[in-house]
TrEMBL record:
Name of the molecule in the record: Nucleotidyltransferase
DUF6788 domain: residues covered: 18-66
One Pfam family matching this protein: NTP_transf_8
Domain Nucleotidyltransferase-like: 105-308
C-alpha cells in the first residue's frame, strides 16, 4: 500500500486549493462574460478602461468555475485576511511533511503565476508536476521521489494560446529576465524555447504538442516560443489545478495523474541510450503512480491506458517496451 499523509493534512491541502481557486475570481474588475470560440466556451472578466472594453481571460467553462463566478461577489473577506488564512494552511502542510520548494524556484513559480502563465493555459510537466501529485493523491513521498530538479518544463497548446486574445502581464520574458534567465541558443536564430539561469544551473523550457512535425511554435498568450513534441497532446489534455505550498500558496496547472503515468511509459521507451538514467526515472515515476491509482482511481487509470493504446501500434509498442521492464505495473494494468 502507498504511504499516505494524515486525513488532516489531506483536508488542509484541499482547503488551500479551494481557497486559491476562490482567490482567482475574488477580485474581478468587471462582469464575468461567456465567450464561445470554435465550439468551446471561455470566461472573461470584461471591464471598461477609458473608451475601450478589455477582456481578461479567467478560464474554460466548467460547472465548478461557473458556480464560483456566480458567487464571486460574496467573497468579501479582505485580501490580507484571505492571504493569512492560506499561509496558515501552508504552515500546517509543511508541519505535516508536505514537500516544499526552494526559495528561488518557489519565487519563480509565484511570479509566473502572477503574470498569468497558468491562467492562460500553461501546464507544469515533468518532475515538478510529479511532486504535486502528493496533494492531489494524498501520497507521502520518500527521499528518492521527493528529489527536486532544477529544470522547469511548461507546456501549452498553440491553438489555445492563439484563441485567448489575452497575454501574460508582465511578459514572461521579463519575468525570466528578473530571475537572471537568458535565452539559450537554438537552431533557429532569434528564436528560443529554453531559458538558462546565468547564475546557476536552472533551466526553463516551453513545450507544445506536435500534431505534424516537431519544431518551434509561437505561444502568443505567453509571448514565447515552444518546442513542439509528439505525445504531448495526450499528456496535457484536460489538466487539473494544483496548489504549491509556498508562502500563501501558488495555483498552477498540472496534467491528470493517470495521463502522466501512461505518458511516462511512452517517454521512457523513446529515450536514447545516453538517457538511460532518465528512462529509469520515468519508469520509477510511472510505477509509483500506477500503484497508487490502481488502488484509488482504477477507472481513471484504465480509461487513460485504453485511450493511449487506441492511438496506434507505435504507442502500444512503446508502452509495452517499458512495461516489459515493470512486471508489477504490467500486472496492475492488466487487472484493471
Amino acid at each position: 500500500m502507498a504511504s499516505r499523509h494524515s486525513a488532516l493534512a489531506h483536508a488542509a491541502y484541499h482547503d488551500l486549493l479551494h481557497a486559491l481557486k476562490d482567490e482567482a475570481v475574488s477580485e474581478l474588475r468587471g462582469t464575468p462574460t461567456r465567450v464561445e470560440r470554435n465550439g468551446r466556451v471561455y470566461w472573461y472578466d470584461s471591464f471598461r478602461l477609458g473608451n475601450q472594453v478589455r477582456k481578461h481571460y479567467i478560464g474554460e467553462d466548467s460547472p465548478e468555475l461557473a458556480e464560483r463566478l456566480a458567487r464571486h461577489r460574496e467573497m468579501r473577506e479582505p485580501a490580507r485576511d484571505r492571504r493569512r488564512a492560506r499561509a496558515r494552511l501552508v504552515r500546517l502542510l509543511r508541519a505535516e511533511g508536505y514537500l516544499g520548494l526552494d526559495p528561488t524556484t518557489g519565487s519563480l513559480m509565484a511570479a509566473l503565476a502572477g503574470a498569468g502563465v497558468f491562467r492562460l493555459g500553461g501546464t507544469v510537466v515533468g518532475t515538478h508536476a510529479f511532486r504535486l501529485y502528493e496533494g492531489e493523491l494524498n501520497l507521502r513521498y520518500d527521499l528518492t521521489q521527493a528529489a527536486q530538479t532544477d529544470d522547469l518544463d511548461i507546456a501549452s497548446f498553440e491553438r489555445l494560446s492563439l484563441v485567448l486574445e489575452d497575454v501574460a502581464a508582465p511578459p514572461v520574458q521579463q519575468v525570466l529576465s528578473d530571475f537572471a534567465f537568458a535565452p539559450a541558443p537554438s537552431l533557429e536564430p532569434g528564436r528560443t524555447w529554453r531559458w538558462r539561469q546565468t547564475s546557476g544551473t536552472a533551466l526553463v523550457e516551453f513545450l507544445t504538442p506536435a500534431f505534424q512535425h516537431e519544431g518551434l511554435r509561437d505561444l502568443p498568450a505567453l509571448g514565447v516560443q515552444a518546442q513542439a513534441l509528439h505525445h504531448l497532446n495526450y499528456l496535457i489534455a484536460e489538466p487539473i489545478q494544483a496548489a504549491i505550498p509556498y508562502r500563501s500558496g501558488v495555483l498552477v496547472q498540472i496534467p491528470r495523474p493517470e495521463r502522466y503515468a501512461i505518458h511516462k511509459l511512452i517517454v521512457a521507451a523513446r529515450r536514447r541510450d545516453e538517457d538511460r538514467l532518465k528512462s529509469h526515472k520515468d519508469r520509477a515515476q510511472a510505477a509509483f503512480l500506477i500503484k497508487a491509482l490502481a488502488q484509488d482511481r482504477p477507472d481513471d487509470l484504465l480509461e487513460a491506458y485504453e485511450d493511449a493504446r487506441a492511438r496506434g501500434p507505435r504507442w502500444r509498442a512503446q508502452m509495452d517496451e517499458s512495461l516489459g521492464r515493470m512486471p508489477d505495473s504490467a500486472r496492475a494494468l492488466q487487472s484493471l
